[in-house]
Amino acid sequence: MIDAGSDLLLHEACRNCGGQLTEFFHYDTVPIAGTYLTESDLGKEPLFPLTATSCRKCGLTQLRETIGNSIYSTYRFVGTGSATYRAYLDQLAKSLTSEWDVRDKRVLEIGCSDGYLLKQLREKGSNQVFGYEPSSQLQQVCLGNGIPVSGAFFSPDSVTHCPILPVDIVIIRHVLEHIDDLHVFLNAVSSVLTETGLLIIEVPDVEAVFARGLYFHFYHEHLSYFSLATLQKLLSHHGFRIIWHRTVKIHGGSLYVICKRYHGIDSSHPLGSKAANDLERVCTAFATHMQSYLDAAHRFVNEQCASGICLAGYGAAHRTTIACSLAKVTPEHIRYLVDKNSYLHGFYIPGAHLPIYSPDKIHQDLPDAIIIFATSFEEEIIREQQAFREAGGRFITLFPEVRYLS
After folding, report:
1. N or C: where does the chain have the smaller number of CB atoms within 10 Å of the terminal CB?
2. Where are the beta strands (DSSP E) in 205-284?
3. Is 55:19 a contact under the CB 8 Å cutoff?
4. pLDDT per residue over 238-253, tens digit each?
């Protein structure tokens, strides 16, 4: 088991601008989402504070805590088990090759996971590709698919691992929010990209998190939570401007932006007092609603347990760990989790200690109801588990409140 927080650090100033941070929620003991336990690890996992803050100067939402990088060497999350997610990456590759002329280019992806997107870009656009992926397990998947990859963390010291420098395209999908020193990282990105190259970034959209009450999107691996405005402020410090953007449905709502170098004057400004006060009100309201939601969720699972309802859960990724931890869910409430990600089978999530199985387990046990923790893929899960529903099983959704689906 990795001691993911052995070098836990606390930030008292903004990761972006060094401004003053205002705390809006704090929990004392939260497990590290994204880590998984063997049976012998149960009860030995580290628990750490989780504190969400916002910067009064630039507006960036961020955690006060920073955990060590050691968890990424054994990282097991991969999204391509979902047909919905694969279709999204297929469409992304099609869009880049047809609309943005990403053909016969040199493409670098930082945090390339199992290499699925790079593989599509190579096949659809005859691009040269290279990836950085610190997970030893996912590195092997990449290599098995013929995707060249470095197991190092992308940094100024490791840029020379890439054999196709300088590159025409840099892709950073759901990675930037994991980075502690944003400026060192983006300096390294800038150093490998051609003057006319494209920088493609996808990050969770904090405005969607606040608007939809996505309380389980805060966890230790995600250090920063960007809006379009705060992302542009950060990028402008490094000579990049967002030239195109959209919001996509992945992970509850994500910002997908395409950037180019821009050598004009930095137009980003500190927040005014009114904007800072508005942000503080949004954050305070979110924290208040969050605690009410968690109390209601705990009552719900307690009521089901008291009624003799057998519950299972679908989805064992990061947000499941946070949901179960903050709502005080135990194996008395939920018997087990299922997930398509075979790298998780046989492990337990930290905190709640729920075992993880293949979705085949549902048809063997036929629980009374399934809580869908993988909320981004709710429609896909219900469609694929139609036999469970026809056998009398029911589904439970998490948002906007925990309830049975009709």
Report:
1. C
2. 224-225, 240-248, 254-261
3. yes
4. 999 999 999 998 888 9
Sign of the dihedral defined by the CA atoms of residues 358, 345, 215, 366, in that order: positive
pTM above 0.85, yes or no: yes
Whether 49 contacts 29, CB under 8 Å:
yes
CA distances to 56, 61, 63, 232, 243 from 222, rounded to whole Å, are: 20, 11, 8, 18, 25
All residues at 6 or more sequence positions from 308 whose CB lies less than 8 Å from its CB, including other chains: none
Closest CA to 312 of 217, 402, 394, 215: 394
CB 117 within 8 A of CB 147: no
Mean pLDDT over all residues of the chain?
Answer: 94
- Rounded to 5 degrees, φ, ψ at 287 are -65, -40
- 146 sits in the region (left: phi over 0; alpha: psi -120 to 50; else beta) called left
Is the bond leading into 166 cis (omega within 30 degrees of zero)? yes
Q: Compute the distance between CA of residue 343 and CA of residue 304 in angstroms, rounded to an integer.
A: 30
What span, in angstroms and rounded, lies between the C-alpha atoms of 296 and 298? 5
CATH-assigned architecture of domain 284-404: 3-Layer(aba) Sandwich (3.40)
Q: Which residues pair with 246 in a beta bridge?
A: 256
Cα distances from 143 to residues 118, 146, 150, in angstroms, run 12, 5, 10
